[in-house]
Amino acid sequence: MTRLLTAGQMKAIEGAAIDSGAVTGLQLMECAGQGVVDAILEEWPELGKIGVSNASGQKAKGSFGAVVLCGPGNNGGDGLVVARLLKAQGWTVKVFLFGDPDKLPPDARVNYEKWRQLGPVGDLTAKDALGGIAEPDLIIDAIFGTGLVRRIEGVLAQVLQSLDALILRKAVRVVAIDTPSGLCADSGKSLGTYSGADLTVAFHSAKRGHYLNCGAEKSGRLLVKPIGLDEIWNERAEGPIVELAQGVPQSVGKTTQTHKYSYGHALILSGGAGKTGAARLAARGALRIGAGLVTLGVPPAAQMEVASQVTAIMLKRVEGADHLSEVLQDERLNAVCLGPGLGVERARDLVPATLQAKRATVLDADALTPFADDPSVLFTNLHENCVLTPHAGEFARLFPDIAEKLTAMPEKGPAFSKVDATQEAAMRAGCVILFKGPDTVIAAPDGQCAINAALYARTAPWLATAGAGDVLAGFVTGLLARGLTPMQAAGVAAWLHVECARIFGPGLIAEDLPEQLPLVLKSLNF
C-alpha cells in the first residue's frame, strides 16, 4: 500500500519521531539532502562519472556546477545540505537565500553556518540575482516545500518567474525538493505562482499534490527517498488515509469448481435505436472483466439493431420503469449499469426503479444528468451499493457548491483539493464516487479514498477518446456483479482501465479497451 500524505500528516509524522527521541531534525535534514544527491545521480548517472573526456561532450567530475536556491524554512535547510554534499564531490556550487538567515529555523540555521564555512550566500531577492550566473548543470529548487501556506506574490513571484525564464533560456536541469516551489502539496494547485522541475524528490512518502491537478505536470519525474522514519510513525498521521491505486487483488482471478452464476449477472440498460453503441461498449467491458453473464436491456425499437451486434451478450426487452421492475425480480441479476447512451428522459424513468430494487448499481453519463436541477431527488434514493462515475462537468452539475470550491483560485494553502471534493460528495450522496480524470479520485462515505493516477510512468493520454468512460462503467459493473464491494470495484476497474490503454498505446479507440483485458490479466498471472 502506498499512502499519499498531506503536508500536515507529514509534519505530524516527523514531529512524533523527533519528540520520541528516535531521530533528530538535523538527522532528517541530512538524510533528505543525501536523498536528493542520490536521486540526482540516479536520474543522471553522467553527473557522477569521473574522467570523462572532453571529446565525448561531457564534463569530467569536478567541473559540474549547481545553483541552489534556498527558502526561509526547512526546505531551504535541505537545500543547504545538498549544496554542501555536492561541494564535497567537487562540484562548483552557488547558493542563494530568500529571507533573513537570522530567522531560519534552528536546523536550517545550523546547515547555513556549515555552508558559510565553504562559500558565500547570495541574496535571492537582489535585482537580477539569477541573470548573471554562468550556465549550471543543475538548479536546485529548495525555496518552498510542503509547508507553503501563503500565496506567492510580489518579490517571491518575481523570483519564480526569473527561475522559469532561466529554465526557458538555457538547457538547465531543475530539481525540486519536496515539491516545485509554489505548488500546494495537498492539492497540486498553484499558490499564486509556481515553477516547474525535471525531477522532484519527495521524502518518506509522496504527497497528494504530486498526483492531483497540475502536480505531475510540474514535478517532472517523481522519486521518493527514505529519510529514516519507520513505518510505525505513519500511525501519527491524522485524518483520512488516501492510497495510490496499485495492482489488482487475487480475488479478481477465477477458480475451479465454479460456474457462470458464481460470477454474477450484470444488466446494462441501453438507449433507443441509433444510440446503443455506448451500452454495448459497457456490456463488453462487463463481460471481459469476468461477469458470468451480461444482458443488455433495450427498448423494443432497438432490439434488432443490438441483436445484430452481440453474441455472448444476451438481450432482454426493457421498456419503461414498470417493465424494469419486473425484470429485476430475477434476483440473479445482481448488478445494473445505467447511463451510457441511455438518453436523459429514459434515464429519468429507469433510475428510480433500479435504485428501489437495491441492486449494486453504476450510474454514469445520462443517468446523472436528469437530476442536475434537483440532485436531492437522486441522493434520496441512492444506497451504499451504488457507484457514481462523473467527469468534471457531470460532477459540477450534481455538486455545484463543491465544484465551485474546487475550481476557485486558492487564497492560501492547503487548497481545497479533488480529494476533498470527492470525499465531500461521497458523504452527501451516501455512496462511492469515482471522479474521473488523469487524477481519478475514488471515495466512499466512510472516508476510504484512493487516487488512480494515469500519470508519470502510467500516463495514458489515449484514454481521451469517445466511449472510454462507457467501458469503465462496464468494468465497474462487471466487478460489482462478481461480488466486489463498490470501493473495490471502482478502484480495480479504474486501474485496469489505465493498464489496458497503456498496453494498446497510440491509436486506441474505446472498442480496443475490453480486448486488452486478457493480456493485462495474463500479465498479472490471473
UniProtKB/TrEMBL annotation:
<keyword id="KW-0511">Multifunctional enzyme</keyword>
<protein>
    <recommendedName>
        <fullName>Bifunctional NAD(P)H-hydrate repair enzyme</fullName>
        <ecNumber>4.2.1.136</ecNumber>
        <ecNumber>5.1.99.6</ecNumber>
    </recommendedName>
</protein>
<feature type="domain" description="YjeF N-terminal">
    <location>
        <begin position="10"/>
        <end position="235"/>
    </location>
</feature>
<dbReference type="InterPro" id="IPR029056">
    <property type="entry name" value="Ribokinase-like"/>
</dbReference>
<comment type="function">
    <text>Catalyzes the epimerization of the S- and R-forms of NAD(P)HX, a damaged form of NAD(P)H that is a result of enzymatic or heat-dependent hydration. This is a prerequisite for the S-specific NAD(P)H-hydrate dehydratase to allow the repair of both epimers of NAD(P)HX.</text>
</comment>
<keyword id="KW-0067">ATP-binding</keyword>
<keyword id="KW-0520">NAD</keyword>
<feature type="binding site">
    <location>
        <position position="391"/>
    </location>
    <ligand>
        <name>(6S)-NADPHX</name>
    </ligand>
</feature>
<keyword id="KW-0479">Metal-binding</keyword>
<dbReference type="InterPro" id="IPR000631">
    <property type="entry name" value="CARKD"/>
</dbReference>
<dbReference type="InterPro" id="IPR017953">
    <property type="entry name" value="Carbohydrate_kinase_pred_CS"/>
</dbReference>
<keyword id="KW-0547">Nucleotide-binding</keyword>
<dbReference type="GO" id="GO:0005524">
    <property type="term" value="F:ATP binding"/>
</dbReference>
<comment type="similarity">
    <text>In the C-terminal section; belongs to the NnrD/CARKD family.</text>
</comment>
<comment type="function">
    <text>Catalyzes the dehydration of the S-form of NAD(P)HX at the expense of ADP, which is converted to AMP. Together with NAD(P)HX epimerase, which catalyzes the epimerization of the S- and R-forms, the enzyme allows the repair of both epimers of NAD(P)HX, a damaged form of NAD(P)H that is a result of enzymatic or heat-dependent hydration.</text>
</comment>
<keyword id="KW-0413">Isomerase</keyword>
<dbReference type="GO" id="GO:0052856">
    <property type="term" value="F:NAD(P)HX epimerase activity"/>
</dbReference>
<dbReference type="InterPro" id="IPR036652">
    <property type="entry name" value="YjeF_N_dom_sf"/>
</dbReference>
<feature type="binding site">
    <location>
        <position position="469"/>
    </location>
    <ligand>
        <name>AMP</name>
    </ligand>
</feature>
<dbReference type="GO" id="GO:0052855">
    <property type="term" value="F:ADP-dependent NAD(P)H-hydrate dehydratase activity"/>
</dbReference>
<dbReference type="GO" id="GO:0046496">
    <property type="term" value="P:nicotinamide nucleotide metabolic process"/>
</dbReference>
<feature type="binding site">
    <location>
        <begin position="436"/>
        <end position="440"/>
    </location>
    <ligand>
        <name>AMP</name>
    </ligand>
</feature>
<keyword id="KW-0456">Lyase</keyword>
<dbReference type="Pfam" id="PF03853">
    <property type="entry name" value="YjeF_N"/>
</dbReference>
<keyword id="KW-0630">Potassium</keyword>
<dbReference type="GO" id="GO:0110051">
    <property type="term" value="P:metabolite repair"/>
</dbReference>
<feature type="binding site">
    <location>
        <begin position="74"/>
        <end position="78"/>
    </location>
    <ligand>
        <name>(6S)-NADPHX</name>
    </ligand>
</feature>
<comment type="subunit">
    <text>Homotetramer.</text>
</comment>
<feature type="binding site">
    <location>
        <position position="141"/>
    </location>
    <ligand>
        <name>K(+)</name>
    </ligand>
</feature>
<feature type="binding site">
    <location>
        <begin position="145"/>
        <end position="151"/>
    </location>
    <ligand>
        <name>(6S)-NADPHX</name>
    </ligand>
</feature>
<dbReference type="InterPro" id="IPR004443">
    <property type="entry name" value="YjeF_N_dom"/>
</dbReference>
<keyword id="KW-0521">NADP</keyword>
<feature type="binding site">
    <location>
        <position position="178"/>
    </location>
    <ligand>
        <name>(6S)-NADPHX</name>
    </ligand>
</feature>
<feature type="binding site">
    <location>
        <position position="181"/>
    </location>
    <ligand>
        <name>K(+)</name>
    </ligand>
</feature>
<comment type="similarity">
    <text>Belongs to the NnrE/AIBP family.</text>
</comment>
<feature type="binding site">
    <location>
        <position position="341"/>
    </location>
    <ligand>
        <name>(6S)-NADPHX</name>
    </ligand>
</feature>
<dbReference type="InterPro" id="IPR030677">
    <property type="entry name" value="Nnr"/>
</dbReference>
<dbReference type="Pfam" id="PF01256">
    <property type="entry name" value="Carb_kinase"/>
</dbReference>
<feature type="domain" description="YjeF C-terminal">
    <location>
        <begin position="244"/>
        <end position="524"/>
    </location>
</feature>
<feature type="binding site">
    <location>
        <position position="75"/>
    </location>
    <ligand>
        <name>K(+)</name>
    </ligand>
</feature>
<dbReference type="GO" id="GO:0046872">
    <property type="term" value="F:metal ion binding"/>
</dbReference>
<feature type="binding site">
    <location>
        <position position="470"/>
    </location>
    <ligand>
        <name>(6S)-NADPHX</name>
    </ligand>
</feature>
